Amino acid sequence: MIAAATFQHIWKCIELRLNNWFDRIFFLNAVPSNSIYKWIAFSWLVLAAAPSIGITSPVVASDIAAMELGEDIALTDSLQQELEYADTATPCNTVGEAAEIWEISTRQLPQSGCVAPLDVTKYRVSRWLPSCGWIESSIEQYLASVRGSEKSNDDKAAGLDLHNIVYVHGNWMPADLTRDRGLLISRYLAQRAHFPFRFTIFSWPSTREKRALADVRENAVVAEVQGLYLGTLLQQFPPEKPLGIIGFSYGARAVTGSMHALGGGTLCGRTLTDGSYPSEIRVSLMAAAIDRGWMLEGGRHQNASRTISSLVNLYNSNDPILRRYHLISTSSRATAAGVAGIVLPRNWLNLPPAEGTSVAAPKNVRLRQFDCRSDLGRSHDERSYYRECSCTVHLMDHVLWNDWNEQHATYTPEVANESAN
Description:
Layout: H1 2-26, H2 36-49, H3 57-65, H4 72-83, E1 98-105, E2 124-129, E3 133-136, H5 139-147, E4 150-151, E5 157-158, E6 163-168, H6 175-192, E7 197-203, H7 212-234, E8 243-248, H8 250-262, E9 281-286, H9 304-307, E10 310-315, H10 337-340, E11 343-344, E12 367-371, H11 373-376, H12 382-388, H13 392-400, E13 418-419
Parallel strand pairs: 1-7, 6-7, 6-8, 8-9, 9-10, 10-12, 11-13
Antiparallel strand pairs: 1-2, 2-3, 4-5
């Protein structure tokens, strides 16, 4: 009873002070203290003050803060379990495995296009060995393996017959998580591979900073610079060996940017020096954080359509992050290719190859797109594409050259093969 009386007394004192305060602010001295008008005035004041005290603004910031990372923070604890899934999973083909796993890092390099050193000797190289983990290596050793000039113990060229696959991660991925993610994806690929392959993780500086929205916009520019770095690396690959590339979200921006630069386009005010590159490049994109019309004539990455042999694009029309893509784009009306698919020129199937290459006209369809919303729902998580999306087999088969196995021919997802008018 004493406690209740004390509480009632304190509340009456607070109510009296609030009434006196609002009487002075809203000139309501003539209005009864319990009037509904005073509570309406109080509500208006709270709503007006909310943005200044941070009640409203963090809502948008938290949504943008989820860009690229998706559910990684909440799901970090499950990553190790996924990395160990091979002990219980039944692979499609026990012959296929990642014979080599490498990491090429540009995290230590300048991230401004005007000063970016386009020299592969500046890249940091590491190699994964199951017996001892990640070890430092050199760009010379990596390129020797890629070109098949490295000698094995029996004096034969090592890696000559290995198929090359390059993976480019998305935004807000620290170096250690990038390696774990790369190992995970290489195991998913190994389950579908019919021959050994070389898997390269292209690691770029995308660690999260304090200011979410400003950081996302800044990393959009950094991802463009990675197109220059990646294009410079791909110029070192032998032209006669095919190449598969996987890009997720901002990684897709780096991939299409590199293809544009290889095709002679200008990127961040820079162009690559003339050089060869793989004559057949298959690109697979997921949740691409690029404008859907960038590869059209006059688009930001218009020359990419000249260097890409074929393209598979997985998008999610319910992606809660990329639906806000206009907040980071130079155009307020921009739509992400990861939400609505990529639009390519009508004559893309008949475009001549860029100079210096000998790309033969591919026999299969060059563009395949799949809306994964029925499998993913409202998700931007990369691992959800591999774990839950039935369309991801097309993405993996594409870069593995499995050429649309008959076992998936009956699957008819919603397809968006659009072209410009």
